[in-house]
Amino acid sequence: MFDVRRSMFKIRRFIPFSTLIWSFGAAFCAIRQKSGRIVLLFPGLAIFLHPLKSNRVFYSPHLRQQRSGGPDQNMRWLLVIPFIIAPVWCAESIGLLVLAPGAQLTGVDVSHHQKRIEWDSVVTKENIHFAFVKATEGGDFRDSMFCTNWDALSRLGIKRGAYHFFRGYGCGYDQAAHFLSSVDMVTGDLPPVLDVETLDGSSPEALATELHIWLKTVELHLAVKPIIYSNQNFFDRYLADKGFDKYPLWIARYSQDAPALTDNYYWTFWQFTNKGCVEGISEKVDLNIFSGTPEMLDDMSYRKVAIP
Question: Which one of 92, 118, 126, 197 is the catalytic residue?
Answer without folding.
Answer: 197
